[in-house]
């Protein structure tokens, strides 16, 4: 795997990341030849961009979700050019964490960010991102309760009526790898990291006030404006390869919060037979089209538990590439169930894309649970008892 | 080629049936047919890379005129953000109430029109659509989609003795009325239905699903002459292996 060989420093600036990219050496694990990434960038050379790596299986260009544990269950990471849909947990407590991890990973890797929200100003969202963990003292703390196995070498499922408890999937404390970092959610990201990063914000209440005529095309005006904003950034900043003279290729990480909620002007969460029933699905289609033709990756959180129309949920799932559902135990009968006492909720990996392949990387393990500790969000394989 | 002038329906329920699309695409290209691929949900490079694993080069086929591809995603962005006056096969994306798919049909007709010139004649024309269900998500009504398939059948199957292959998703118990209307309507028109289903018992590493094959004579009153077969399958990197139920090599 191509790993940026930098010497670890406390703070990273985009400058050092660019230097790291140029030292990315082509190891024997990387395949040569015209392997297109998920995006149709038209560039068939090996692209070495900071914070990305090639999938071992099919050479697909991947970025980290910010949670190395989740990366492993998604087949190594999120493919560039695809959408990661997070089905929000009921009280929207844990999905913002995944959202923030994704954005924080973008800042640490030097990627450009596009943050869209109808509820919260993107500048405020960025202030609340978790701080990256680079110091050694925490590493020592973690080593005590992590078994230092790697996932790949340790998968040995006994064919028995009981799964073994796997080593905890907390991110391996990596210090200077270019892919996947650990974060301390009890601390905020340092201000200077935000300032040196390139980010674009889309805050719906600000944008909606400008009055210019836009055709509806059966999309709500919020979605329409957002699509135009995204397309504009992709084109202007050259993520679709339209500015070949730009020196360094980079990834655009797009994060859209609470898509489908009434705050976006959509009513699929309000009524079963809604007027704008095709609005969200059309939005997702055009979003997919934009992503496939650019070097970008997108995370969206959708309050699917509020959507009453099952057909719409199915369509939204089909139009997304990777779908991860969060189910928290708060307020449910599982909260007091002794089987679940060590966890805060379950993670359901509902869909993984088959890109450039007939098959996909899917881990055998299907029962995942998460737990929010003071500094970390951990994902574990749930120990099952079959009596 | 014994099968001509037929509509083959590919259908998947609780699983991903796109491997069938890749199979038919490489099959017809190798059989020297002229193929029009309406690729609505994945980029061309996706089909190209899988095609290479199955032994065909889509780029070469496109260059020699054997393959015409409508890339829904790429041209969708074009028509959505940079609208033009001329009709575009995907212009329904810009319309508030998506009307009919007449421009899309016109594209297919122009792509597969047999050319009476001295060039190497391809065998029968083939239309491959991946997939029709996404049209419902884009606001096109099921009746309009059925009309489109009907028009394509009339031209490609009956007039030009070619084949049409479409993929639809079976929405199962999600109460998607539009999807049910589309699936039922297409099933009645099809000569061959290939239905990929996930296993009832859930995910399995060695058996990815079950394939039901149904031969039909559409629009005939008697349906009891339909033949059907069921296989289980496992998808591998460059091929799919089929075996009778319960005969997976992993089990034996």
Structure description:
The complex is a heterodimer of chains A (387) and B (252). Chain A has 387 residues and is of the alpha/beta class. Chain A has eleven helices and 14 strands. Chain A has helices spanning 14-22, 68-73, 95-109, 122-127, 136-145, 151-154, 191-196, 204-209, 221-236, 279-292, 310-319, and strands spanning 52-54, 61-63, 78-79, 83-87, 112-117, 130-132, 183-188, 199-203, 252-256, 296-302, 322-328, 345-351, 368-372, 377-381. In chain A, the strands form three sheets. In chain A, strands 8-5-9-10-4-11-12-13-14 form a nine-stranded mixed sheet, sandwiched between helices. A three-stranded antiparallel sheet of chain A has the order 1-2-3, with no helix packed on it. In chain A, helix 9 runs parallel beside helix 10 and helix 10 runs parallel beside helix 11. The model of chain A is unreliable at 1-45 and 136-177 (pLDDT under 50). Chain B has helices at 18-30, 44-53, 58-63, 72-81, 102-112, 133-137, 142-159, 177-189, and strands at residues 7-13, 33-39, 67-71, 123-130, 163-170, 192-197, 209-215, 227-235, 240-243. Chain B is globular and about 60 Å long. The mean pLDDT of chain B is 87. With 252 residues, chain B is α/β, with parallel strands linked by helices. In chain B, helix 7 (142-159) packs parallel to helix 8. The longest helix of chain B has 18 residues, at 142-159. The A-B interface holds A 35-36, 38, 40, 58, 81, 215-218, 227-228, 231, 278, 281-282, 284-286, 288-290, 292-293, 310-311, 313-315, 318-319, 354-359, 364, 366 and B 16, 18-19, 22, 41-46, 48-50, 53, 72-74, 76-77, 80-81, 93-98, 133-134, 136-139, 169, 171, 173-179, 203, 205, 235-240.
């Amino acid at each position: 795997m191509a790993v940026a060989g930098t010497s670890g420093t406390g703070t990273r600036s985009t400058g050092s990341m660019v230097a790291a990219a140029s030292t990315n050496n082509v190891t024997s694990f990387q395949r040569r030849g015209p392997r297109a990434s998920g995006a149709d960038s038209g560039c068939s050379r090996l692209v070495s961009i900071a914070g990305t790596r090639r999938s071992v299986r099919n050479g697909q260009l991947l970025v980290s979700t910010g949670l190395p544990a989740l990366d492993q269950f998604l087949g190594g990471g999120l493919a560039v050019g695809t959408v990661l849909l997070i089905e929000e947990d009921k009280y929207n407590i844990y999905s913002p964490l995944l959202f923030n991890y994704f954005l924080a990973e973008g800042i640490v890797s030097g990627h450009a960010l596009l943050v869209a929200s109808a509820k919260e100003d993107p500048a405020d969202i960025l202030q609340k991102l978790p701080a990256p963990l680079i110091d050694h003292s925490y590493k020592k703390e973690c080593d005590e309760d992590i078994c230092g196995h790697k996932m790949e070498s340790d998968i040995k499922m006994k064919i028995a009526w009981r799964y073994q408890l796997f080593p905890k999937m907390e991110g391996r404390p990596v210090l200077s790898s270019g892919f996947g970092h650990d974060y301390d959610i009890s601390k905020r990201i340092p201000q200077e990291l935000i300032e040196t990063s390139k980010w674009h914000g889309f805050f719906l209440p600000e944008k909606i006030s400008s009055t210019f005529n836009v055709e509806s095309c059966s999309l709500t005006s919020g979605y329409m404006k957002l699509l135009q904003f995204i397309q504009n950034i992709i084109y202007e900043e050259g993520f679709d390869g339209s500015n070949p003279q730009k020196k360094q290729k980079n990834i655009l990480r797009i994060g859209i919060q609470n898509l489908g909620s009434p705050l976006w002007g959509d009513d699929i969460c309000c009524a079963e037979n809604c007027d704008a029933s095709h609005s969200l699905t059309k939005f997702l289609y055009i979003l997919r089209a934009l992503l496939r033709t650019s070097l970008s990756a997108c995370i969206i959180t959708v309050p699917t538990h509020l959507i009453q129309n099952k057909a719409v949920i199915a369509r939204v799932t089909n139009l997304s590439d990777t779908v991860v559902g969060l189910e928290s135990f708060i307020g449910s009968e599982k909260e007091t169930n002794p089987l679940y006492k060590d966890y805060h909720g379950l993670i359901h990996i509902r869909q993984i894309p088959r890109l450039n392949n007939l098959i996909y990387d899917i881990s055998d393990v299907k029962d995942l649970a998460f737990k929010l500790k003071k500094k970390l969000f951990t994902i574990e394989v749930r120990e099952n008892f079959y009596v | 080629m014994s099968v001509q002038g037929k509509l083959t329906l590919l259908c998947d329920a609780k699983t991903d049936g796109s491997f069938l699309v890749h199979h038919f695409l490489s099959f017809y290209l190798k059989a020297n047919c002229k193929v029009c691929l309406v690729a609505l949900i994945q980029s061309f490079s996706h089909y190209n890379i899988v095609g290479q694993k199955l032994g065909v080069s889509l780029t070469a086929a496109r260059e020699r005129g054997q393959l015409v591809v409508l890339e829904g995603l790429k041209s969708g962005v074009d028509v959505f953000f940079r609208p033009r006056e001329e009709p575009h096969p995907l212009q329904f994306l810009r319309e508030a109430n998506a009307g009919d798919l007449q421009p899309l049909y016109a594209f297919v007709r122009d792509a597969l029109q047999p050319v009476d010139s001295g060039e190497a004649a391809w065998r029968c024309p083939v239309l491959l659509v991946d997939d029709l269900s996404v049209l419902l998500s884009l606001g096109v009504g099921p009746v309009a989609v059925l009309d489109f398939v009907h028009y394509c059948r009339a031209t490609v199957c009956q007039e030009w003795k070619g084949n049409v292959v479409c993929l639809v998703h079976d929405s199962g118990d999600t109460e998607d009325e539009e999807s049910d209307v589309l699936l039922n309507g297409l099933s009645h028109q099809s000569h061959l239905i290939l239905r990929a289903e996930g296993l009832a018992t859930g995910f399995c590493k060695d058996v990815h699903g079950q394939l039901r094959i149904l031969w039909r004579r559409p629009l005939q009153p008697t349906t009891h002459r339909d033949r059907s077969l069921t296989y289980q399958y496992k998808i591998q990197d460059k091929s799919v292996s089929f075996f009778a139920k319960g005969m997976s090599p992993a089990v034996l």
